[in-house]
Design goal:
about 70 residues; alpha+beta; 2 helices; about 25% strand; globular
């Protein structure tokens, strides 16, 4: 469906995984939409953080995953 996504990312997304360097659209495809009214979902000059049920995903200023961690 997304011809610009590399095959490795597509396989990870299908299995419900994310990886460093994925963009926000890819994270949504793998894990769904983040909790928008949770305290862990925020923006700053450093980038963005999205809170999920058990994890927080951190994006750099380029909108790509730099890390994630358990809540």
């Amino acid at each position: 469906q997304h011809s610009d996504w590399d095959s490795e990312s597509v396989l990870l997304i299908r299995e419900g995984f994310i990886a460093k360097g994925m963009n926000q659209e890819q994270v949504k495809a793998a894990w769904g939409k983040p909790c928008r009214n949770c305290t862990g979902t925020k923006k700053g000059p450093w980038g963005e953080a999205w809170e999920y049920t058990t994890q927080v995903v951190f994006f750099g200023t380029d909108g790509k995953v730099i890390r994630w961690e358990a809540k």
